[in-house]
């Protein structure tokens, strides 16, 4: 026992909650440090005083000094002694370069938006109804980009698509492609740029995401991409697409079965459906074996995925861990797809599947 005040609390329970409470506050300051560019100005520069850091970042020294104390105490920044602070190369690799595939910053900069949802999520526990992506505000589409954006830019076309037999060749020759749940369009625009002879259609329910996608499309001048609001302009009922992609979105849908059927109707008989979804096990017990990962996934689910999947009455409510490989296999099988193959693509969070009629 820590003291009489702790009653039945064990050291272990006290330490667990203490660690969490401290980490939450430190994580908020990581988000702030990223917003203010503090890791970037410190990276690769060795030990610096707070005056030097504030000067390089164009900020007020007294605030920067307190941030440096807090981040050094947390161990994110290293204290070099003599009132000097350093961002190690290891931390810089994860936080200082937004374009790096290793960049973890998006997990922090999205935190303030997620935490601001808590009062409305509390209501969902009473009503059962979660929030759609749009009900989370315009920032939801931008937040989503921070999580997989660099993978789409750097890995999708060069490494992932070649794993799908015959697909890159078909795209080079000229194929018709749908990205369902396209979000703000990073993935589809990457594919469209790499395969100019092909035609691409992005579908989503989020007006915010579609607006962002369209302005990104206009900015890069991609004439072979069209975005559709799936509510008013659904997938065609006749076989149209040679390739369909669904990236990290089936488990967010209120009616994934309907989407699987719509994709089956819209895909040609020798078409390919490339599915990316969360790499999780079919049971809670299995997921619990990777405890930190499970905490991340199930927590994200309450903030985002389950919330979206329960955003209409009778929502399927799959949530972040709702589509493990066996569940997905069954879902697509019932929807009329007979071939299902997991691909050998390494990723910390996602699993990859080649699915065919
Ligand atoms: C986690 S985001 C992923 C977005 C994008 N694929 C990516 O990886 O960045 C999930 C997306 O699914 C969309 N979505 C949810 N239900 C949908 C539905 N029934 N049809 C199409 N898109 C849907 C959401 O609006 C959101 O943009």
Can you tell me about this structure?
The chain is α/β, with parallel strands linked by helices. It folds into 2 domains: 95 residues, Arc Repressor Mutant, subunit A; 243 residues, 3-Layer(aba) Sandwich (Rossmann fold), CATH 3.40.50. Helices cover 49% and strands 15% of the residues. It is built from 16 helices and 9 strands. The protein has a 7-stranded mixed beta sheet with strand order 5-4-3-6-7-9-8, with helices on both faces. Strands 1-2 form a two-stranded antiparallel sheet. Helix 1 runs antiparallel to helix 4 and helix 9 runs parallel beside helix 11. The protein is globular, with a radius of gyration of 23 Å. The N and C termini lie far apart (61 Å). The structure holds S-adenosylmethionine (SAM). The site of S-adenosylmethionine (SAM) has 21 residues, from helix 9 and strand 4.
Task: State the gist of this model.
This protein has 357 residues and is an alpha/beta fold. The chain has helices at 11-35, 38-42, 50-57, 61-74, 89-95, 106-109, 111-116, 118-127, 139-160, 167-173, 186-194, 207-220, 256-266, 284-288, 291-309, 325-334; strands spanning 78-81, 84-86, 176-180, 199-204, 225-229, 241-247, 267-278, 339-342, 350-356.
What attributes characterize this protein structure?
binds S-adenosylmethionine, 357 residues, 16 helices, two-stranded antiparallel sheet, seven-stranded mixed beta sheet, globular, Rossmann fold
Number of helices: 16
Element-by-element helix/strand order: HHHHEEHHHHHHEHEHEEHEHHHEE
Largest β-sheet summary? 7 strands, mixed
- CATH homologous superfamily classification of the largest domain: Vaccinia Virus protein VP39
Overall form: globular
SS-based structural class?
alpha/beta
- Mean pLDDT value: 96
N-end to C-end Cα span: 61 Å
Question: What percentage of amino acids are in beta strands?
Answer: 5-15%
């Amino acid at each position: 026992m820590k003291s009489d005040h702790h009653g039945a609390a064990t050291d272990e329970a006290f330490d667990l909650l203490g660690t969490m409470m401290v980490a939450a506050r430190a994580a908020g300051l990581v988000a702030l440090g990223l917003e203010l560019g503090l890791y970037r100005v410190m990276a690769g520069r060795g030990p610096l005083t707070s005056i030097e850091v504030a000067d390089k970042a164009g900020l007020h020294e007294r605030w920067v000094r307190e941030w440096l104390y807090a981040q050094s105490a947390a161990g994110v920044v290293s204290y070099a002694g003599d009132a000097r602070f350093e961002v190690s190369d290891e931390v810089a690799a994860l936080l200082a370069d937004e374009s790096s595939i290793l960049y973890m910053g998006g997990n922090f900069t999205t935190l303030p938006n997620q935490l601001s949802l808590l009062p409305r999520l509390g209501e969902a526990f009473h009503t059962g109804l979660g929030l759609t992506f749009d009900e989370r505000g315009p920032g939801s589409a931008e937040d989503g980009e921070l999580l997989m954006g660099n993978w789409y830019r750097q890995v999708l076309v060069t490494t992932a698509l070649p794993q799908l037999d015959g697909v890159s060749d078909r795209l080079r020759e000229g194929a018709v492609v749908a990205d369902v749940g396209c979000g703000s369009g990073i993935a589809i625009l990457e594919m469209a740029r790499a395969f100019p002879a092909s035609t691409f259609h992005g579908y989503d329910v989020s007006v915010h995401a579609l607006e962002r996608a369209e302005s990104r499309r206009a900015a890069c001048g991609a004439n072979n991409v069209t975005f559709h609001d799936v509510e008013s302009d659904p997938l065609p009922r006749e076989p149209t697409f040679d390739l369909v992609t669904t990236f990290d979105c089936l488990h967010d849908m209120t009616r994934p079965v309907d989407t699987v059927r719509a994709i089956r109707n819209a895909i040609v008989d020798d078409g390919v459906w490339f599915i990316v979804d969360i790499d999780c096990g079919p049971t809670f017990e299995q997921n619990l074996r990777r405890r930190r990962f499970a905490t991340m996934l199930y927590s994200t689910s309450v903030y985002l995925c389950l919330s979206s999947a329960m955003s209409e009455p009778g929502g399927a409510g799959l949530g972040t861990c709702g589509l493990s490989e066996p569940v997905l296999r069954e879902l697509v099988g019932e929807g009329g797809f007979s071939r299902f193959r997991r691909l050998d693509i390494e990723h910390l969070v996602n699993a990859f599947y080649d699915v065919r009629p």
